[in-house]
Amino acid sequence: MLESILKVNVNLTAEEIAEAKRRLGREPNEIELGMIDVMWSEHCSYKSSKKVLEILPKSGRRVVVGPGYDSGVVDIGDGDVIAFKVESHNHPSAIDPYNGSATGVGGIIRDILCMNCRPIALLDSLRFGNPQSAHAKWLFNNVVKGIADYGNRTGIPTVAGEVEFDESFEINCLVNVACVGLGRINELILARMDNPGDIIILVGGDTGRDGIHGVTFASKTIREDSELERPAVQVGNPFIKKLVIEATLEAIRTGKVTAVKDLGGGGLTCALSEMSSKGGTGVDVELTNIHVREEGMTPYELLLSESQERMIFTIPPGSQDEVLGVFRKWEVPYSIIGKVTDTGRIVAKYRGKIVVDIPSKLLTEPPIAKRRARKISIITKKRASKPPIPMDFSKVMHHILSSPNIADMHPVYRQYDHEVGLRTILKPGDADAAVLRIIGKNKAVAVKIDCNSLHCHLDPYTGHAAAVAEAARNVTATGAEPIAITDCCNFGNPEKPEVYWQFKEAIRGITYMLKGLGLPCVGGNVSFYNEDEESGRAVKPTTTIVMLGLIERLSLVTSMALKEVGESIILLGKTYPELGGSEYYRLIGFGGGKVPKAVASRERASIKTVAEAIRRGYVTAAHDCSKGGLAVSLAEMAIKGGLGLKVDLAYVPHTFSMRIDEILFSESSARFIVTTSEVNTPKILSLARRRGVPASKIGEVSPSNYTVAMNGKILFECSVESLRESWQDAIPRLIGG
After folding, report:
1. Which residues of the chain have pLDDT under 70?
2. What is the rounded distance in angstroms from the CA atom of residue 177 to the CA atom of residue 671?
3. What's the pLDDT score for residue 593?
């Protein structure tokens, strides 16, 4: 019988099928096997990552809801909470970039919504191959359009993001989308069925055949014939989503709703099994009650469809009129499909006949995969020689600012409505993080999405620790206190020991920095199998960090733009000769060098120093110093402010005998650039000394030119306007737009 089961199109191993049979006490039928296949997939089960993720710190004084639910939730005071989550939609976007990215937005919105929080902002982290290749351009343009169309039509602003180009993402692009929601701490709702007898309602879009086996498709590598799996990509409808958002929030306000969960990966199977398993209950549903888009759908299709814009509600008996009246008001389709039971089993009927009878926990407690990890050394051999020092640093500056990984992303931002909802205080690119006001309150939140894939590739531990640190510096530079993260892990095939080692090292690095900064991880997502099966090439290990910060009063909000001629420019943090994986070395094609080291004590000290300086009103502009190094960070501040600057590299805190290009372009961690008045300059330097942070005034804001000197001798000088042109023209020239 096992041989006949294996003929069914499932990704389960023979051992997993045997284990399912043992737990069930009989052969699973085809429908049950499909449900097990979905729920034991890597995407739903986390069978390769669950044990590794246990080391992450998950608790803290602000944590309200941690990992295990649709979204993490943190307390921001005054009874307000922020829900935030990031997820990947990599595989669907690789074969259908428009619908794949659009439904990635739709799914993450629902995760926030089912906590009873209103979605208020979106962020995205995108990675593509060579920007000059036709395939990368096709992916880029359609992914951006999919995100823009869906987000704009739901009325949720896309406020920040990042785009990175690297040859490892040529076939497998990465599309990570985050959503931020606002709610009240005493009005949160959890996706768990605790009450036998409650009525189960399916709400939202019609169920169709799109997205069936979407999660199993996302749990294997991309193949040459993956285009044939386009039906596994869901199709979104943002207009219905807008109605579902309003109907959901109003229905919960009736006080009659006991649980809500979105139908994403795994569809009805995942929602019913996870909700009942968490509550220790079961369900009894009639599949023929489901409102459908297509005639003749089978029980298998109804249970595994991943059609979008759908939610599951549970309500007590007798409350139908009030709750269903809300759905009718918003013209949102709904179906009463069953009830919660005390059996602990998923029982599904079709035309009154039982077609599924399976324990909830069998679906939600898969066998843990035993993976081997093998250390690899990706870091290139140290070279005795270094590249020659450039003769023309002005030319280098223009080239590096026109690098697609540094250049202005306005061609992306302009497609997004980033101000709808009236919460956005700083526009995309104006600061190191997006800043959103809490309407009616004298406070705001800052949020940033960040990672450096090349650093993470060269040294997974250090690179991922640095990603957390950079995200923390980003929100700090806006005037916020970092309070929590959520993350999205993107890796190749975990069955390969080298890839699994990268993953374990990444989580170790993230854990180290979180503990060092005293921050929790309140949720996340793991996307494996981001690998081209034909070539065997995996994406560079990339764990996208979403950092949330709290700004205690609006007067603290700080941008990166230079403000006034004559103000002091201060660099906090020491610069080391760490050009490994830098944009400068990428530009000149040099593969050696050290990857920037991230030390938690240094990060904590520099973050605390800048935060205190901002709180005391000393800082007029702030920017973290990271990708592209000091030279690029200064240029960005000048471009944003429309002013020039003059700095002397002799005053940069750095190690002995560093070359000029190392001082300019090293991407050492734990560094900030701030501007301040002459009178407040010694005050900031005093704060830095007290915390042991190397700091120095390195120059002043000037009217129009970007001038760099060493010991008073000008090394190079160029107009800020010429730098702006190089920075702004690159993406339209490479991609179009």
Report:
1. 1-8, 211, 213-234, 378-384, 418-421, 736-737
2. 27
3. 82
> Phi, psi at residue 87, to the nearest 5°?
-140, 160
Question: Looking at residue 221, what is its pLDDT?
Answer: 54
E-strand ranges in 590-684 read: 619-624, 644-648, 672-676
Structure tokens at 598: 């991230």
Nearest residue to 266 via CA among 222, 229, 298, 219 = 219
Residues 688-698: b if buried by 16+ CB within 10 A, e if exposed: beeeebbbbbb
Strand pairing partners for 86?
A: 178
For residue range 491-536, what is the model confidence (pLDDT) as tens digits? 999 999 999 999 999 999 999 999 999 999 999 999 999 998 888 8
- Is the distance from CB of 82 to CB of 63 less than 8 angstroms? no
Catalytic-labelled residue, pool 43, 91, 455, 457 = 43
Active site residue 457: no
d(CA 364, CA 261): 15
**DSSP assigned state of 486:** E
- The pLDDT tens digits of the residues spanning 268-306 come to 999 999 999 999 999 999 999 999 999 999 999 999 999
Residue 43 is a catalytic residue: yes
The alpha carbon of 612 is separated from its chain's Cα centroid by a whole number of angstroms, namely 28
Residue 88 CB-density burial (10 A; 0-12 exposed, 13-18 middle, 19+ buried): buried
359: Cβ–Cβ under 8 A, 6 or more apart, which residues? 23, 24, 344, 345, 346
Helices and strands per DSSP (H, E), number in the chain: 25, 26
Q: State residue 378's pLDDT score.
A: 63
What sections of 75-179 are H helices per DSSP?
Answer: 90-95, 97-113, 134-154
In eight-state DSSP terms, residue 480 is: P
Task: Provide the token pair at 264.
Answer: 């994403």
Identify the pLDDT of residue 219. 47
